[in-house]
Fold this protein.
Amino acid sequence: MSGPMVDEVRTRAQSALSTSPFYELRELHVEPREGHVQISGRVSSFYHKQLAQEAVGAACRELEVQVVNTIDVG
């Protein structure tokens, strides 16, 4: 993934989380990697973990990057 693509993925993914009505998602981290974007951090439920993955996936769908969800639940 090239420099501008990394920036675009990071911007879209972070925006999707930071504008979420679920405050827990706003504290998560995104890290573009080669061919995918990784989401990390901690949320209180598997529901919120899934919401984060869906939000980032939708935001980055047209960029064709895979979402890797390493969010901890607890």
